[in-house]
Amino acid sequence: xxxxxxxxxxxxxxxxxxxxxxxxxxxxxxxxxxxxxxxxxxxxxxxxxxxxxxxxxxxxxxxxxxxxxxxxxxxxxxxxxxxxxxxxxxxxxxxxxxxxxxxxxxxxxxxxxxxxxxxxxxx
Length: 123
What we know:
The protein is α+β, with helices and mostly antiparallel strands. 34% of the residues lie in helices and 31% in strands. It has helices at 26-34, 38-46, 76-84, 87-96, 104-108, and strands at residues 3-6, 13-21, 49-59, 62-71, 100-101, 114-115. The chain is globular and about 40 Å long. The two termini are 25 Å apart. Mean pLDDT is 92; it is low at 5-9.
């Protein structure tokens, strides 16, 4: 799902991932995130995710999203299952997933985001 690297802080892991964004969904995707649902934001926090950011970049004719967050919990898989099982989060994903254009390797695994390898970090 995501690439993780431990930081010098206790129990903090960094995650980066990338996916494409369908050009015709650009404005809708931005609008969704400008008005993110409070229930989804609450669930993100409950699942020990902090510093969650999504960046947008156009490269050539294609749009890409870069996601970054820090995980501060002790059981990532359990927290991600808790998030995936949440009905409001599922409803949110039904809005956001059709906007995204998975990279080929993610699509082959029926995933939306592609894990990224961290090659540098400084505090």
